[in-house]
Model the fold of this input.
Amino acid sequence: MDKNIVWHNYAVEKTHRSELKGHKPVILWFTGFSGSGKSTVANALESALHQNGVHTYLLDGDNVRHGLCKDLGFSDADRVENIRRVGELSKLMVDAGLIVLTAFISPFQAERDMVRNLVEDGEFVEVFLDTPLEICEQRDPKGLYKKARAGEIKNFTGIDSDYQPPVAPEIRLNTGENSLEQSVQQLIDYLKDKNIIQ
Done:
């Protein structure tokens, strides 16, 4: 970093923003195979939180690639850069006092840990959508597994690109066994138990 770049301290800090909003800021990092339910669960949770006056923002993998990360492909290096950018953006949103929900395959443990290390203890909650690959492939909501099996898509997670399951996620969801309502309730219970929301 250029030695002429100096951090500027603000009069209004994260604690002030958090107090104003009435809840703690946190990143809920949804990770899992394509089709595991990341976006579906995150979207349903955000709706439930919004109805209860909680200030949130949802960052979705596909949506982010329409703008912030539209210059990136799906090589390992591009996946790492994708998560780095999203991590830095999430950190800013936590500083703004928001509950940030991120739905990204994010296949590498090192990158998820990198985001965890950007924020304070307790501000990163790894939510592992532990839905078996077979179920995700049966769902195939976007037809991507079919294309990957046919060789039309390269570097597809679970087919010809690795996925490293979380080592010790704060929350583990299996959308193959649990309903959407049960998954959302499990997340809300966790947030209340940790005094993130009331």
Summary: The mean pLDDT is 93. Residues 14-131+165-194 form a domain with the Rossmann fold fold (CATH 3.40.50.300). The beta strands are 26-31, 56-60, 99-103, 124-129, 171-173.
